[in-house]
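HTH cro/C1-type domain-containing protein
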Amino acid sequence: MADLQETIGRVVRQERQYRSLTIKELGEKAGLSEIYVGEIERGQKYPSAKVLESLAQALGLDLAELLELMAEEIRKDREPEYTRVIGFTIPTTPNQPRRTVVKRIVNLLDEGEIESVANFSAFLLSKHLTPQ
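Structure:
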């Protein structure tokens, strides 16, 4: 199991790359140095709560969403491989973040239905990202 410092760094890197940001761009948006962001991503530094808040905002997330992504990574590391066939964790408590609820719904779908939902989601995303 990875340690918390490495998990935080892995999630920050994944979210940064998903948004096609460089370390420098993320640092500028978060008001942090490029070196410090790199150290966080490599699991060499523990970010403070304030730094996590700045990183979340720079990534377009609220702090709760960033922390939920970290929690998902921790759960993934702790679960046996066979329980993560599709990579989803079913919510176990009320008021779970939206991502977790959506994952629960997707888990109920058959393979062909998942592809349809994925295609529709891609369509909606393309409409959302295209300037009107």
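The chain has a mean pLDDT of 79.
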